[in-house]
Amino acid sequence: MKFLNGIFGPVSGSVGGVTASRNKFGGYLKTKPNPVNPNSERQQSVRNTFAALAEQWSNSLTQDDRDA
């Protein structure tokens, strides 16, 4: 839904469950999304794997190995 500027200029931000946004076609309102973080067993496994790989990267490789 396209709308005109607010009383004091362009509308932006969120109020309640509605967020004002803008794209190349103009301003519009959309429902504010709720972040999803299921914190599942699989998600924890992936996070732990990334953490272990990041630690290995910073602790066990020389600068020459990282540059390669």
Structure description:
- The protein has 68 residues and is of the alpha+beta class.
- The chain is 37% helix and 22% strand.
- Strand 2 (18-23) and strand 3 (26-31) form a beta hairpin.
Blueprint of the fold:
Layout: E1 13-15, E2 18-23, E3 26-31, H1 41-60, H2 63-67
Antiparallel strand pairs: 1-2, 2-3
Task: Put the structure in a nutshell.
The protein is α+β, with helices and mostly antiparallel strands and about 70 residues long. Helix content is about 35%, strand content about 20%.
Number of strands: 3
Q: Give the termini distance in whole angstroms.
A: 51 Å
Structural class: alpha+beta
Order of helices and strands: EEEHH
Mean pLDDT: 81
Number of helices: 2
Helix content: 25-40%
Strand ordering within the main sheet: 1-2-3
How does the overall form come out from the CA principal axes?
elongated
Give Rg in angstroms.
22 Å
Low-confidence stretches: none
Counting copies of identical and different chains, the oligomeric state is single chain
Largest sheet, described in full? 3 strands, antiparallel
Strand content: 15-25%
